[in-house]
Amino acid sequence: MKLYRKTPLFLFAFLLSFTVLNAQHILQGRIIDAFTKEPLPFVNIGVLKKELGTVSNEDGFFFLEVPDVFAKETLRFSMIGFDERDFQVADLEAILLSNNTLVLAEQTTFLEEVVLTAEKKWDTRVSGNSTTSKLLITGFTSNQLGNEIALFVKVKKTPAYIDGIQFSVVENIYPEVRFRVNVYSSDYRFPDENILKENIFVTLKQSEGLISVDLKEYDILVDDDVFISLEWIDEDLGSEGLWFSAGVFGKSIYARSTSQAEWKKQRGLSLGMSVTLREASK
Question: Which DSSP symbol is given to 216?
């Protein structure tokens, strides 16, 4: 007579629920320019307002695992100078299985005429936290690509140019690390829309010290308060090896964990970063 071992029903139920909870949508592919067909590097990719995102690499390739509970959520592709594209997570997975190449179309922009007379006088002012402390340090808030830390900048007189940023590096263990500078409009609580017309990349080779980034060539003209951020985009490195000076007093750090995630205000330390403004003299 054959003997059969009975498996408890609750064990089947547990295994089934475990499988469902751990189901993943695998999103991988390549992003290219719709016109030139060239790969688009460092495109921001993420589930809107969730801590699930990434950035495409230098060759336009990306990989992201999304839990099944977010299957019906919206995932966005965005890049400075290009139109955004939104997909439902589950739909995108099916699309990529049939064709793993996505295209982004370049934005059509209309330049507003700004008349600045040669006689206009300008006042240069530095805003932010100029600390170079090595006792208090801060850094990126996660290891995810697309992680950003931002500083609120109060513009007192308009129009104004953002001529540069300065930040103090306490420790950098990498021979070379690259990140992106972003400038966002303000909704008076958090960063809103990226107002840049082109990407600004910074390559850091110094192990420590005060870093100055000249932004004059980008002609960043603003007419209201802004947020300026540093974004982690280097896929081959972990962000734990890069630390900045911080202060107890000063403006709070604003951060989001990855591309398309919600911004959050970080209580406590302030980032050792300052901004050089060239404001119209009243």
Answer: G
Task: Examine the fold and report which residue of 40, 70, 104 is the final residue of a domain before the chain moves on.
Answer: 104
CA-to-CA separations, 226 to 23, 57, 186, 192, in angstroms, rounded: 40, 28, 5, 9
Please tell me the distance from the alpha carbon of residue 229 to that of residue 277, in angstroms, as a whole number: 15
* Cα dihedral value 217, 222, 225, 231, nearest 10: -40
Number of domains in the chain: 2
Side chain identity, residue 169: V
Check residue 116 and give its pLDDT.
54
For the record, the structure tokens of 21 come out as 């909870």
Domain extent at residue 196: 122-280
Residue 112 lies in a domain: no
- Report residue 134 as tokens: 């090595």
pLDDT computed for residue 250 by the predictor: 80
114 falls within a domain: no
Closest Cα to residue 229, out of 268, 176, 262, 271?
Answer: 271
Question: In which region does residue 140 sit, left (phi positive, over 0), alpha (psi from -120 to 50) or beta (all else)?
Answer: beta
> Which pTM does this prediction carry?
0.88
pLDDT > 90: what percent of the chain? 78
Are the C-beta atoms of 218 and 81 separated by less than 8 Å?
A: no
- The answer to whether the CB of 206 falls within 8 A of the CB of 245 is no
3-state secondary structure 49-102: CCCCEEECCCCCEEEEEEEHHHCCCEEEEECCCECCEEEEHHHHHHHHHHCCEE
